[in-house]
Predict the 3D structure of the following.
Amino acid sequence: MKGKSSDFVVDRIDLGDGYSISRLIHGGWQFSSGHPLTQAGQDDPIDVLEASAELGVTTFDCADIYTGVEEIFGRFIKRWASSSNETQIQIHSKFVPDWSDLPIVDRSYVRRIVERSLSRLGLERLDLVQYYWWRTEVPGFEDTAGWLDELKEEGKIGHVGVTNLDVSRIRRLNAVGFVPIINQVQYSLLDRRPERSLALHCEGSQTRMLGFGALAGGFLTDRWVGESEPVEFQNRSLIKYRLIIDEFGGWEAYQALLQTMAEIAENHGVEISSVALRWVLDQSQVAGVICGATRLGQMERNVSAFSFSISKSEREALRAHLELAPGPLGEVFGLERNRDGPHGRIMRYDLNRD
């Protein structure tokens, strides 16, 4: 295996008020019952999560809308608490009221969903809740942020952030005194929408970015070097990020980028996934990167992103590909927010049912 994890440590960052997270975060979407499309195997998720924590990836990201994942994380938290390991772990979840529920969201609705997350996880407090509101033309967007802040004051939430919000929406929240600690957004070599106005906004505010999709659902890994376009997909991630490849310029442009990434990986004795993660970690205002793993050994390879630096010439080689890319265009989550477009049509908008 390339890149031995014992040679380095996983970086940490303080997000404010002494709240420290690992800069590589273990994401939970891949454990969701709605994610796989085939019977491709996974290792026991509790073992996989425990292995990440032992590597120094101590921050874990789940969501109220990832079916079954908060319960999985709850079992992991219970096992970790009963072990002899004294390393503290951090648990992040989300609050994403259903598209159809937005008109009825009130203070009690917010409390119910957050307390349900706490119950599933077996916790008294969530370290971070990340908030998203599907339709900002529906009243309640700003009020709901305030109700989450009330739960923070009660001690049920440690910090409140947002996810998939562009600058105009964040400014609406700022105008009523709500400043999210982070904004979780899709960010990769294939999708640089955050580096436009969002990065500039974060530079002048107290909000940092957490990037997801840095590996583009697995497309930015050794697995796809020199491969033909897939006809069938094993999971929803591959469907989602295949559309991003189209926006980037198509399969040929993607393969050219992947070849350059492979050369950089070879220079440093790591895998392509580490190059993909390292690049996002190095971008302005990025506090950390969320990366899923469902098999033992995957996260051990990923933490090699902390074992090297991308040189100036290597950055220029990557940039040459990026400058040729016609897209993705627009602000963060703009393509996905359009329910009539190809990105929006694959989204699921009502996953918060009991």
